[in-house]
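Appendix B. Chain record.
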Amino acid sequence: MMERASILAGKCYRDSRGTVYEVTAYDGENVHFVAHGSIDRSPASKSEGAEPWHRFLEDLQQEVQCPRS
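Structure tokens predicted for this chain:
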């Protein structure tokens, strides 16, 4: 599991389902992100969201290169 100190705006992280989360902001409590390739696994699908940092980290596996927009 990744740690809280790993969360950085501008970085991307992949979860166990293959979704890539691009962190747009992190205020120490909440992580704001754009999810690329959600549950339907369509690489073109994007959605925005925000979660408390501990929930954001639950299923992340690694830092990855951000997708090109």
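Further analysis of this model is presented in Appendix C.
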